[in-house]
Design brief:
Blueprint (H helix, E strand, L loop, with lengths): L5 E2 L2 E3 L2 E3 L4 E5 L6 E6 L3 H18 L3 H16 L2 H12 L3 H20 L5 E5 L3 E9 L2 E5 L5 H15 L2 E5 L6 H11 L7 E3 L4 H9 L5 E5 L2 H11 L5 E5 L4 E5 L5 H13 L9 E7 L3 H14 L18 H16 L3 E4 L14 E4 L6 H4 L6 E7 L2 H9 L6 E5 L3 H8 L6 E4 L11 E2 L5 E2 L1 E2 L1 H7 L1 E9 L8
Parallel strand pairs: 1-5, 8-9, 8-11, 9-10, 11-12, 13-14, 13-18, 14-17, 16-17, 18-19
Antiparallel strand pairs: 2-3, 4-5, 6-7, 7-23, 12-21, 15-16, 20-22
The structure holds nicotinamide-adenine-dinucleotide.
């Protein structure tokens, strides 16, 4: 369905702001332009940063007010789920039902951060002094986000950073800016002027944000390569960084599983959102004897998945989000086949004007193949075999990534012993790609710096402050 192309605006200092030049947003299911978004200029970014700094003075003061406003954000989002979900699917490609569910989750996230109790730790409370540890907001937070789950990523920083008392300047990915700009328009009515600013633009705008003198905190989610640049750019000013980066999660299957049950359970942990999830299962290690039955079972599931336009109700998997990622996945799969992987399902791009790729199972994969060594971020899963547990643990850990890893077994005790040896921020048993709102989510090694969710997000957007009140009287003779 071709609809007229709408120009969207940025939220800067409480106003919806256009710009001199615009960029197109492409619907990955059709290749058509669906929105045009402003290219933020340096001057516009300055206005946004100054507005955030000005708003910070008042915003940091009243936590009860912040909680109230977060609840209003939750309501505003609930009332806009359908509109936002549609925009998100049009630009990102994910099935509409998944988009709806994600945005409902984000609305709940606002409420969750409103309800969160932020502890004040009393270290000493006696005749001499009251010494406490409070969380002091960093100030302005510059947030730079990726294209895989735009609204979830945006609210994942907005809700905790605002609750913590920070103000925010946020930039979504240039591939998926539309839903986040619409979110800005929706939240403009409930968030005070300057507290939240949303700008659109390329990576260059992101680098201006990191190097800008105003923000004291950087919240970055994206690739390892960009994350390293962000870390280096933030260092001279000693800005606090939260870096949530890529993953190459291994799943280790022990020798006591039922291949069909395993395949059913593990499949969607790898293929949800067409594999464009940082903590998706990205390589599966199986005992030699189980390789063929597990591959056969995964291939059966993969071949039955309905791939299509996310706007169609029957669609289970949408396209890759953009041409860059589509070309990358095509290249990784072609290389794997050239290097000896066997295609058990899929293997090809789907002929259409969109960026569709068949759900692909690559059997007999091994290290040295790019799809095993790198993060594929797409609907193609390599299956590798192993002989001993010591060996497979080493191979799972032999990577600079460290976001998540899982162990699958009928004996959860045995699996937990293996999981304890995995060098990753998340270690799952008989599941994968799971987050809990109160459990820290972050990466080991190159997968990130810092963690988020619940109090961990509050910690990321605050520094501890020791408050010390002497109880010795100041009056003469006391
Ligand atoms: P990316 O690094 O290419 O881009 C992320 C953001 O950084 C975009 O907004 C981009 O405009 C901006 N950017 C680009 N160059 C910049 C620069 N020099 N300075 C500042 N900002 C710059 O990542 P992507 O392709 O959008 O996202 C996919 C990656 O994100 C994958 O590796 C995925 O695993 C990772 N990811 C991680 C998590 C997590 O929580 N760990 C979650 C989702 C995605």
């Amino acid at each position: 369905v071709t609809e007229s192309v709408e120009n969207l605006s940025m939220l800067i200092d409480g106003a919806m702001v256009s710009s001199d030049t615009f960029s197109d947003v492409i619907n990955p299911a059709t290749g058509e332009v669906v929105y045009r978004v402003p290219d933020c200029s340096r001057e516009e970014l300055d206005v946004a940063m100054n507005a955030a700094q000005r708003a910070y003075r008042e915003w940091r003061v009243d936590d009860d007010r912040r909680r109230e406003i977060l609840r209003a954000c939750a309501k505003a989002l609930e009332n806009s789920v359908d509109e936002l979900a549609r925009v998100q699917t049009l630009e990102q490609g994910m099935p509409l039902a998944a988009s709806v569910q994600g945005i409902q989750g984000s609305a709940a996230n606002f409420d969750r951060y409103a309800d969160l109790e932020i502890p004040v730790v009393t270290v000493k409370d006696d005749d001499e002094a009251l010494i406490q540890v409070v969380r002091r907001p960093l100030g302005v937070v510059a947030a730079i986000k990726p294209w895989n789950v735009p609204i979830g990523q945006a609210v994942g920083v907005i809700a905790p950073a605002l609750r913590a008392g920070c103000t925010v300047v946020l930039k979504p990915s240039e591939y998926t800016p539309a839903a986040t700009l619409v979110l800005g328009e929706i939240l403009r009515d409930v968030i005070p002027t300057g507290v939240l600013n949303i700008v659109s633009g390329s990576g260059e705008v992101g680098s201006w944000m990191v190097e800008h003198p105003i923000p004291r905190g950087i919240s970055f989610t994206g690739s390892v390569a960009t994350g390293k640049k962000v870390n280096a750019m933030a260092a001279p000013d000693l800005k606090r960084v939260l870096l949530e980066l890529g993953g190459n999660d291994a799943a280790i299957v022990l020798d006591d599983v039922d291949p069909d049950v395993l395949a059913e359970r593990i499949f969607w942990t790898a293929f949800r959102n067409s594999g464009q999830i940082c903590m998706a299962t990205k390589r599966v290690y199986v005992p030699e004897a189980l390789h063929d039955p597990i591959v056969a079972s995964l291939a059966r599931i993969a071949s039955a998945v309905k791939v299509g336009d996310g706007m169609e109700e029957s669609t289970e998997l949408g396209p890759l989000c953009n041409s860059m990622q589509y070309e990358r996945v095509k290249g990784l799969v072609a290389d794997a086949i050239k290097d000896g992987a066997t295609v058990a399902a899929g293997g090809n791009a789907i002929d259409s004007s969109g960026y569709f790729f068949e759900p692909t199972i690559l059997a007999n994969a091994h290290e040295g193949m790019r799809i095993v060594d790198e993060e594929q971020f797409g609907p193609a899963l390599p299956i590798l075999t192993y002989k001993t547990l010591d060996e497979v643990i080493d191979r799972a850990n032999a990577t600079n990534f460290g976001l998540g890893a899982s162990v699958w077994s009928s004996d959860t005790g045995r699996a937990a012993e293996v999981a304890a040896l995995l060098e990753s921020g998340n270690a799952w048993v008989n599941t994968h790609s799971q987050q809990h709102p109160n459990a820290p989510f972050g990466g080991a090694k190159w997968s990130g710096v810092g963690s988020q969710n619940g109090l961990y997000s509050i910690f990321a957007y605050t520094d501890p402050q020791t408050t010390w009140t002497s109880r010795r009287a100041l009056t003469a003779g006391a």
